[in-house]
Amino acid sequence: MTDSSLYATYARADLKFEKGEGAWLTTQDNRRFLDFAAGIAVNSLGHAHPHLVEALKAQAEKLWHVSNLYDIPGQHQLAERLCAATFADKVFFTNSGAEAVECAVKTARRYHYDCGHPEKSTVLTFSGAFHGRTLGMIAAGGQEKYLEGFGPKAPGFITLTSLDIDLVKQSINEETAAILIEPIQGEGGIREIVPAFLKALRDLCDESDILLILDEVQTGVGRTGHLFAHEEAGIKPDIMAIAKGIGGGFPMGACLATEKVAKAMIPGTHGSTYGGNPLAMAVGNAVLDVVLEDGFLDHVAKMGLVLKQRLAALKDAYPDYIEEIRGRGLLLGLKLSMPPAELINACRAEGLLTVGAGDNVLRLAPPLIIDQEEIDFALRALEHALDKLVAAKQESH
């Protein structure tokens, strides 16, 4: 599909959605789809959630944007709530996940500069990571397919080839500022980082006087059944980047940090024209209203367990196609024996929207509000899609 006035950077499906309600989307020609992609793990509360709609409408009638030249009360409210619910003491609001991770890296480097160690500027990352599409963040991710054609790789990032704590130790030197990692690699193929490794990283950072940065852009705000995925490992980062789910569909992100680290970010060191504007803050606060309600995260964990169990049965039924079930909560993946495009298309034909990920993974990231009936629909659609792929393969032979 070609849009002549647009950059040709997206391989778009020929679907034009007009409205959504809960976990469902409806096209202009009145076809209905169950959304198990959620805008790539963004629509945490589904589509047109009444509380989010009301919050946005009420704010839109008052004030949209003033810039950070002035005090924005909604920022104070949301920052205080995020700090109360996490390790953090300070928050900086951004427009996207990439900006949140950029802010995290800048904060780490500035902290060491402020401590008299400007040489400590290198950040260790891991192969398979995805931290965004800016020039800095494609360098942090280190994946050649994102770096190709964009000139010299931004310096200051070293990508480690395996999740080996001895390799990490050997890679730390007098220039190391921080370690940056996703608790679950989303774009990289829903690859979980085991709690023991996260704990080992935390201990190593403490021993080496470097900072631990967590990228929870995709895993945060309830996606795994915890408010943030690292909670399962019983650790606390020094800095954390979040986005996606916190806006529920409105573009926003945030960088969270401890007081010790954030105090180096003084006036003039960082900024954003749009970040944290009144519209974004109204929606972010509304998202937290729902996610922090009693029982909400329990529901996510329960639905995640049901979905994972059903997917395990599907794997047993189609062993030639599904190799492994990955992920936690409602960030799950089917590791396939083939690229996921065919199965994505077959699911779409059955009324189910999914999204691919690296390492031949079909990613399932439905809204956190899904129920048992919707999981039943998704599994029937997956089964029918797989049956059609099996039949097509048999015919071709």
Biggest sheet, open or closed, and with what strands and sense?
7 strands, mixed
If helices are DSSP runs of H or I spanning 4 or more residues, what is the number of helices? 13
Mean pLDDT over all positions: 96
Would you list the SSEs in sequence order as H and E?
EEEHHHEHEHHEHEEEHEEEHHHEEHEEEH
Question: Stretches where pLDDT falls below 50 for ≥5 residues?
Answer: none
* Oligomeric state of this protein: single chain
Q: Largest sheet, order of strands side by side?
A: 4-12-11-10-7-5-6
Radius of gyration: 21 Å
General form: globular
How far apart are the termini? 31 Å
Structure description:
It is built from 13 helices and 17 strands. It is α/β, with parallel strands linked by helices and 397 residues long. α3 packs parallel to α10 and α12 packs across α13. The radius of gyration is 21 Å and the shape is globular. 47% of the residues are buried. The model has no long low-confidence stretch (mean pLDDT 96).
Element layout with pairings:
Elements: E1 17-21, E2 24-27, E3 32-35, H1 38-41, H2 50-60, H3 73-85, E4 90-94, H4 97-114, E5 122-126, H5 135-141, H6 144-147, E6 157-160, H7 165-171, E7 176-181, E8 184-185, E9 191-192, H8 195-208, E10 211-215, E11 239-242, E12 253-257, H9 259-262, H10 278-291, H11 296-317, E13 322-328, E14 331-336, H12 341-349, E15 352-353, E16 355-357, E17 361-364, H13 372-396
Parallel strand pairs: 3-15, 5-6, 5-7, 7-10, 10-11
Antiparallel strand pairs: 1-2, 2-3, 4-12, 8-9, 11-12, 13-14, 14-17, 16-17
Helix pairs in contact: 2-10, 3-10, 11-13, 12-13
